[in-house]
Design a protein that fits this description.
- The chain is mainly α.
- The chain contains four helices and no strands.
Length: 90
């Protein structure tokens, strides 16, 4: 238990340091006033219409490649094939 707590805390500290140094999305310069509010409303409406059965049926992909072939995010991202490896031959 102590080992788990130590390494979990260490991972959190490393993540905080990396996020502070790298600063992801720092250069995006997104203006909230310019965002399309209708797209957000579509997602909120779809979320409110989701049932427990629909959620459970969405977890299981329809085919083996459907999570990677469609633009819709899926809970089963583990079924997607890994990206191609790039070998550096020198």
């Amino acid at each position: 238990m102590v080992c788990f707590l130590f390494f979990s805390t260490l991972a959190l500290i490393v993540d905080m340091v990396v996020a502070h140094v790298v600063q992801p999305a720092a250069g995006m310069n997104v203006k909230v006033a310019d965002l399309d509010r209708s797209k957000v409303d579509e997602h909120v409406t779809a979320t409110h219409q989701m049932t427990v059965t629909g959620l459970l049926m969405d977890i299981i992909p329809k085919t083996l490649v459907s999570p990677s072939a469609t633009s819709r995010p899926s809970c089963c991202w583990c079924w997607a094939p890994p990206p191609p490896r790039r070998h550096c031959l020198r």
